[in-house]
Amino acid sequence: MKAIGFIIIIILNLTFRIYGQENSTFKPYSPNSYILSKGEWNYSLFSKGEYGLSDKVSLKIHPVWLFFAPSIALKWTWIKTEKYSFSFLHGLSSPTPIMNLLAKKGTGGLISPEFDIPFMLCIENKLIFALNLQGGHKVIGDFGMEFALFNDKLLPGSSIDLPVISPRSAVYYKNLV
Amino acid sequence: MTWNIRFGCGVDILWFGDACGDRTVLYKKEVETNLDGLIARINQINPDILLLQEVDLYSKRSAYIDQMQYILDRTYFGYGYYGTNWKSQFIPSDGIGKMDEGNAIFSVWPLSEGTLNPLPLRTDVDALTKFFYVRESVLSGLVTMPDGKKFYAINTHLSAYSTDYTKYRQLLKYISVCDSLSFTGNPIVTGGDYNLIPPNADITDYCLIDACPGEHFHSHMDDPMHKEGSYFTPEINWLNAFYNKYESSLPLEIYKSDQPKYYSHSSDPNLDWNRSLDYLFANRHFVNGTHKVWQEFRKETDHAAVTALWTFKK
């Protein structure tokens, strides 16, 4: 039990990403460590939806964004008790299609068309934990690493420096977040 | 001295907005090289008061460099004011992104009473464009010389591409700002990039000279018929409002006698300077014959620096 507490503290300190959450079907942003039951699903407008492949594994994917910004992830349960749970998440994504779409002249050109966007493949591996509180509330934290593989260099001027809309693109420019 | 420094873009980089180019975002090294060239010229000319237009602060297009600080750190000026014209966290067009561009006043003597007067927005663009587009302004500051003499320095940049009366409304507002400061009894010296040619200029239509490859103008089939920012014929008398009230460092009769000598702009770096857009005015006399357009500095920006000597009694 002490070891589990120590791990939780380490993860909290390393990530600083902590979320409060209630149980509901619609979650705009849901890095939950809980695995859905087989056949159960959650959906979201902006982030990936989640479908329970089995009682231990779920698939995360967005049915519309998949075509513009391909991204898929598998989540599987490592430890699950009534008070807490740990899961691993492994994901693949490629921002190349959406960046090419946004690199255009005129209105809507979030990226200058002068840049050639190389093919990029991002690999994400993450440990997520959830701690159950009273009243159905949870505290959730995650810790992980993301790597980007390229076939060419992505020039820094091609970044979309817009908070909220594209806040997590550093990996494409620094190869690690 | 007044100079439009074109955010450190130089003339070799063909920017998409005004040079028929395809570049939007410059690299830090490019901007620093161009700024160093501009600064070398400023230090060479050695003006006491410097009015700059198109100075960028932390803009994506100019590699997020604070150009005010960059210039202050490398020149002899001890004082500076910056007034933003175009500020947006994110411009969702052509990859422009974050933008903060404005006018600046640099002085070797202390500055105070810094004031930013916004000018009317363009009325010939759609609402979305207007929301993200530049709002030109007039920046002023009170200069106090060591012997106690004071004068106002005023800097402006009028709209380059308006095709209606926007620029005239901006000019009238600018004149009213100059009037209000002149009424204090202090001398004023003002200047900037007016994007207007002198009222007695022989050439008033630059559409064909400025046309990018594939662009056509002046035919009934062409829409627009004239290139934005290149057709001065309907605006030719507008600057009379300023000439009638204030003293120009370049009197119209002097300009008329040798126009190419006083040209200060060309949108094509491969062409010679071909129009006068940059001016200095005051409510006291300039020293005769001291107006100079630094045409020999062709690589620094798409405008030539304009200088003049100005004296006044306490």
Would you write up a description of this structure?
The complex is a heterodimer of chains A (177) and B (314). With 177 residues, chain A is an alpha+beta fold. Chain A has one domain (25-174). Chain A is built from 3 helices and 8 strands. Chain A has helices at 2-15, 96-102, 170-174; strands at 18-21, 41-42, 49-52, 57-61, 71-80, 84-93, 120-132, 138-150. In chain A, strand 5 (71-80) and strand 6 form a beta hairpin. Chain B has helices at residues 28-45, 67-74, 127-132, 166-182, 207-210, 240-243, 252-257; strands at 2-4, 49-56, 79-91, 97-107, 111-118, 137-144, 150-157, 188-193, 247-248, 278-282, 292-293, 306-307. In chain B, the strands form 3 sheets. Chain B has a 6-stranded mixed sheet, covered by helices on one side. In chain B, strands 1-2-4-3 form a 4-stranded mixed sheet, covered by helices on one side. A two-stranded antiparallel ribbon of chain B has the order 11-12.
Give a short overview:
The complex is a heterodimer of chains A (177) and B (314). Chain A is α+β, with helices and mostly antiparallel strands.
